[in-house]
Amino acid sequence: MKYGFFDDSAMEYVIQTPQTPLPWINYLGNSAFFSLISNTAGGYSFYRDAKLRRITRYRYNNVPTDQGGRCYYIKDAGVLWSPAFLPCKTPLDHYRCRHGLGYTAFESEKNGVRADMTCFVPLNHLCEINSLTLTNTSQSEKKLELFGAVEWCLWNATDDAQNFQRNLNTGEVEVAGSVIYHKTEYRERRNHYTFFGVNAPTSGFDTDRETFLGRFGSWDQPGAILSGKMGNSIANGWAPIACHKLEVALAPGESKNFVFLLGYAELDGAEKWESPSVINKLPARCMMEQFSTQEAVEQSLVELALHWKGLLANYQVSSSDEKLDRMVNIWNQYQCMVTYNMSRSASYFESGLGRGMGFRDSCQDILGFVHMVPQNARQRILDIAAIQFEDGSAYHQYQPLTKRGNTEAGYGFNDDPLWLVACTAAYIRETGDHAILEEMVPFDNQAEKSKPLFEHLRRSIRYILSHTGPHGLPLIGRADWNDCLNLNCFSEQPDESFQTCSNFESGKAESIFIAAMFVKYGCEYAELCSRFGDEAEAAEILGHVQEMEQIVLNHGWDGQWFLRAYDAFGNKVGSHECEEGKIFIEPQGFCAMAGIGIKEGHAEKALSSVQTHLLNDYGIELLAPCFTQYHKELGEITSYPPGYKENGSVFCHSNPWVTIAFAAVSDGDSAYDTYRRIAPAFTEEHSEIRRTEPYVYAQTIAGRSAARYGEAKNSWLTGTAAWGFVSVSQYILGIRPGFDGLIVEPCLPSRITHFTVTRQFRGAIYRITVHNNRSGQYRLLLDGSPLTTSYIPFTEGRAEYNVEVFL
Ligand code: BGC
């Protein structure tokens, strides 16, 4: 069952009912001001950091779900309704929500009044605009009351939800004309305020929540609206809000537009105040003025559309499979940009309180967006490298506002250092900018401990080499990519973290996954060394890589698949000898990606075991059989009910590794099969089972052992976005950057007989046509002339490359 449809020409997903199984959301914002918005206009906004600069309040776990956000009300002859359905829940005569790139638009109609509302964050501005047009579609004049409201969050979203003995005393606002200012704590340490205004005269307002809602009122039936009497209240402590009331008279056929604007301003020192205790409203006035007309808003929307068009133009495919095209051209790249902005901090499943930017997560995200915003990727790499320690290990997370490592999440996740190598190499392949290696970057954010980025990479590699266990395999530390496989932590207390509780590092628990990473990224590091001047280091590391490969073959092969790990007692994890958790997905994909066991036939065997034991209708499960008992020596993974999360769901992030692995063994049909099982556009028809948005990847899809088999959770902020894009663009379609140019090595299923890709790369445009004749004879023509390899060398100054490939 579907709840909407893809409109590819508009690059939108069009939702036709507010009754989606879950709120289906979108992201607004490009660089500093961000908003989450659901298909019923729920969500919240923040400046840079969803924890420390939360602008509007949102209640996760609220009942009913997804109340709040942007609250608009239209009162028409006693009938109260909301253009986005919530908060009123009044049935609408017509409803549509169009989620597009950086904007969400609602169309609704009730009793002869039509509402069109477009919500977006303009490029380079610190505000969200809600442009609302009301049209009288009836035959008689309409006298409407229109209300627009938001609820302020008192900045730190964690404190806002818990420190009530303070919070209920601090709220302060100012009202001037049609703008309400939220200035809680601006008096002392803060230099920022927010405001909510409208470009038309108002006939009343409220800023005190209780006055507006009433003692037993609620957001769907605010007392002040029902009684017809706004309080014109000025909040003093308690819960400050901003609500404007407007009177709107519409002749038959007439339309009126209103621009509501939610803005953020920062002012320092002498500029902070207009007069004693009165905030300086100049930045707010300028912003209100700038967007005071519908034309200015429309113009800004055009700029936003051009911005997105420009980003997506870097990789566009045209094939016979429209679902593939819409994933590659629109939604997968869009999701990659969202993960760039959010990492794992703020979604409808990530509260914005806990996880800032993850070290490994952000490094992997870069693989998915580096081709769109290489400059941002560069800065991100340098920021991430700055939370590395001198020994090469790293903080596991950092806060986006401060860019400092989080002490709570700690360190000692031994895969982390290698992801820095992965993203740096990807960045250099994309851009050719190897000067980044010479950038001075501090360790642990301490300027006096700065070294070139190259040295950071060296220490990443050395960290792995100096942390090996009894078999010579890398030690896992607190966990590797699988945060929940905690082989050294032995948590027995319900109130402690599975990852950061004591007993860290037995000196025995080893990870075959990190070994595979080392082989893959060790090679990439060695290549960087040999290209940029350190042959001796390159040779030494390649020696270690070869040894590691051999160690995996000797101690990491279980007969039909690769082992996952050795635990703190030296017992095998992910072996046919185990009672549960006999086979894990991660090493099967990553070993083949690293080239381990290909010539021995192990890779193919492992992939075929994946198909036998782990493949279900919705993707590849993380492990099988699922754990039914808690094992403290294995950690959090065994704490989940069977079929959920790391305990045997389709943990989507790891699926593209298998797709790439199938490409590594030249099995195009299987590569495509694993790709399409989780790619959201391909799953749209069973949206009632999947339940999350059909236009973005989710982190997990419940596995066969789960009661709710096929149900997805944690949509949007997942490494699946980046890896999904890498797998399809670089391996199935096969167009991937190398250090010297673009490589074209598609690995296609038989159903795709041809495709064309337009790829912008280092300022040049590549038009690539691939004919999948399945002849087994690879031929590549560059501007009509044959090349002997699949590598198209990049030539500085050349603007266009026309490439034709026959398979
Ligand atoms: C984390 C990732 C981790 C994955 C698998 C996600 O929630 O953000 O860092 O690799 O889970 O455990």
Structural summary, described in words:
The strands form twelve sheets. Strands 1-2-9-10-11-12-19-16-15-14 form a ten-stranded antiparallel β-sheet, covered by helices on one side. It starts with a strand and ends with a strand. Helix 12 runs antiparallel to helix 13 (535-555) and helix 17 (668-678) packs antiparallel against helix 19. A hairpin with a 3-residue loop joins strand 9 (94-99) and strand 10. With 807 residues, it is of the alpha+beta class. The protein binds beta-D-glucopyranose. Beta-D-glucopyranose (BGC) is lined by residues 344, 358, 360-361, 481-484, 646.
What is shown here, in short?
The protein has 807 residues and is of the alpha+beta class.
Q: By helix and strand content, what is the structural category?
A: alpha+beta
* Helix fraction bin: 25-40%
Please work out how many helical segments DSSP would assign.
19
* Widest sheet, order of strands: 1-2-9-10-11-12-19-16-15-14
Low-confidence stretches: none
Rg, please? 27 Å
Bound ligands, named by name, code or SMILES: beta-D-glucopyranose
What's the average pLDDT?
A: 97
